[in-house]
Design brief:
single chain, extended
């Protein structure tokens, strides 16, 4: 009877742990469940649309520049959970998830700081998730 070298006995466990760490650190981006798209030319003043049978208003205030904080706000009557993710089409921009919190008037708000894209791109998509329904809002950052 021959004994396998220690490396061959430990290797499967090491590979399982490595795969687990990679999946945990770099989750697969979720695709929008709702597929709704809001093309808003005036995010500074906000835009309104319907999402899963509910009226939703969305806007951003402040300078939309990478590495500068700006505010995202959303109004959705009866909403319990509002999150915003930021991505670029075909490019991994890292983990950019923000939980928006309601103010006393019921407007969900959050402060967002986006990274700089190393290729110089400025075309972002905010994926706003309101109680599980997703709304995609494309926008372009300033220079």
């Amino acid at each position: 009877m021959t004994m396998k070298p220690l490396i061959w006995r430990v290797l499967p466990f090491v590979l399982i742990v490595l795969v687990g760490v990679v999946v945990w650190q770099y989750p697969v981006p979720r695709s929008p469940k709702d597929g709704a798209l809001l093309a808003c030319a005036t995010l500074a003043s906000g835009c309104t649309t319907q999402l899963s049978g509910r009226q939703v208003s969305v806007g951003m205030t402040g300078e939309l520049k990478p590495l500068h904080a700006f505010q995202v706000w959303a109004k959705a009557a009866g909403a319990r959970k509002v999150e915003a993710r930021f991505t670029m089409a075909g490019m991994d921009m890292g983990f950019n998830l923000y939980t928006l919190r309601p103010d006393p008037e019921g407007v969900f708000r959050g402060s967002v700081t986006l990274p700089v894209c190393v290729t110089g791109r400025r075309d972002w998509v905010m994926i706003l998730e309101i109680d599980g329904a997703q709304l995609q809002v494309p926008f372009v950052t300033e220079l």
